[in-house]
Structure to design on (277 residues):
């Protein structure tokens, strides 16, 4: 008799009467009489177990998944051998407590059944299977939702890997650097000089501080505005971008183009990897 809970024990056949290979493992391979005697003893044990009904699997509860229950039942009756299975449940089992405990308890009270008395009825089996279907449906929805979230992460992962591959294969990413610089300036202007606003509403000092802090360049933007009243938000943004490009070009000239190209690539890869983490 094998007593089990929700484990399937998949992958191993339970041989009725024991394993003949284990019985003969310690015998001399040349001793035919010993092997014949061991085989005769095994066949006698095997027939005794077969005559008694084979392997009987006892389940102490029902799993949330019918598949696991079926795998447990399948431990008996292997390879044409006889076998049987039987499940014993309690109203305090998790599956019964969640889905069927109240209804079954009410039914027991109406029928006048005492505590500890066994219940055997097709209705109970159907109720358990319905509860298992509900749990399986819920678990399926959970897996489906997780897959949808994973698809979003996978899309992001593909974009990042594509960007990284392009960086790895490129020898010159100066255009990428220029585009990133223009985008960074536009983002700063959106923060400190919102579109369609008056000059009195602009935070010019905040813009100057942010450019100095994030890009290491000190620009006298307020002095530009005082000297030229024709500057609006668009022309001012273009001038800031041009000034930053000029400063950057000076750095390239100072350290050399090849050194700067290598430095740009290294920094971009590092920033991309750190941001993806």
């Amino acid at each position: 008799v094998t007593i089990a809970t929700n484990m399937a024990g998949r992958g191993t056949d339970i041989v009725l009467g024991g394993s003949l290979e284990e019985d003969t493992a310690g015998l001399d391979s040349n001793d035919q009489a010993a092997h014949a005697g061991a085989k005769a003893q095994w066949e006698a044990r095997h027939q005794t177990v077969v005559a008694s009904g084979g392997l009987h699997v006892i389940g102490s509860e029902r799993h949330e998944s019918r598949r696991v229950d079926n795998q447990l039942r399948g431990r008996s009756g292997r390879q044409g051998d006889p076998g049987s299975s039987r499940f014993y449940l309690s109203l305090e089992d998790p599956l019964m407590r969640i889905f069927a405990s109240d209804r079954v308890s009410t039914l027991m009270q109406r029928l006048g059944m005492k505590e500890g008395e066994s219940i055997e009825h097709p209705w109970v089996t159907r109720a358990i299977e319905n509860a298992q279907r509900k749990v399986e449906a819920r678990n399926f929805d959970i897996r489906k939702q997780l897959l949808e979230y994973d698809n979003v992460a996978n899309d992001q992962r593909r974009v990042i890997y594509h960007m990284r591959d392009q960086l790895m294969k490129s020898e010159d990413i100066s255009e990428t650097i220029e585009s990133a610089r223009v985008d960074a300036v536009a983002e700063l202007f959106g923060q400190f000089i919102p579109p369609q606003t008056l000059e009195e509403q602009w935070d010019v000092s905040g813009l100057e501080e942010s450019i100095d802090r994030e890009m290491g360049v000190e620009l006298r933007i307020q002095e530009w505005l005082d000297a030229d009243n024709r500057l609006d938000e668009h022309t001012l943004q273009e001038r800031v971008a041009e000034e930053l490009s000029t400063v950057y070009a000076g750095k390239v000239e100072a350290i050399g183009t090849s050194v700067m190209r290598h430095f740009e690539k290294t920094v971009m890869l590092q920033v991309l990897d750190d941001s993806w983490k």
